[in-house]
Amino acid sequence: MLVDAVIQYWQQQSNYSSEEVLGFTLFSAIIFGGLNDQAVLNDFLNALLEDRPIECWQHEQNIMHLSAYNVHYGNQLEKDLLTRAYSFVIDDVTRCWLWRLKQDKASVKKELSVEQFLNLVFKQLN
Predict the structure, then answer these.
(1) 48 exposed, middle or buried (CB, 10 Å; 0-12, 13-18, 19+)?
(2) Rounded distance, CA 63 to CA 81, Å?
(3) If we measure between CA atoms, which residue out of 60, 78, 61 comes closest to residue 69?
(4) pLDDT tens for residues 18-58?
(5) Is 52 helix (H, G, I), strand (E, B) or coil?
(6) Cα dihedral 44, 47, 51, 52 sign
(7) Domain of life here (predicted)?
């Protein structure tokens, strides 16, 4: 039901604020890309704001390398901290929002959290 409401909103709108674009990028990564870990989502947001590279892999698959600090588990050492590396294969919907984000990222409010960006998006649906 939420996904239907979002898709309907997308079909009705043609202009989005920079914050909405970033919020819909995060939403798409969760719903269509399967990102469901808070720490990884935070790193995804940081990666978007820092304009980290996206790698192209076999047949136009785009991958973004993310990592998250975890006290109990990790598979790489980063600045003397054990982190969990995560390779996010970017789905098609998220990829579309990433292209849009590249166009107007300069005006995004960088101090907002994942939750704040998502809340901004959900308010638009009411």
Answers:
(1) buried
(2) 23
(3) 78
(4) 899 999 999 999 999 999 999 999 999 999 998 888 888 87
(5) coil
(6) negative
(7) Bacteria
Tokens of 51: 């304009």
Give the pairing type, strands 55-57 and 81-90.
Answer: unpaired
Phi, psi of 104 (to 5 degrees): -135, 30
Q: What is the tens place of the pLDDT at every residue in 62-73? A: 899 998 887 777
DSSP annotation of 80 reads: T
User: Which sequence spans correspond to the domains of the chain?
Assistant: 2-124
Nearest residue to 17 via CA among 98, 91, 109, 96: 109
Which residues lie closer than 8 Å to 95 by C-beta, 6 or more apart?
62
Check: CB of residue 21 under 8 Å from CB of residue 27.
no
Q: How far is CA 101 from the centre of its chain?
A: 10
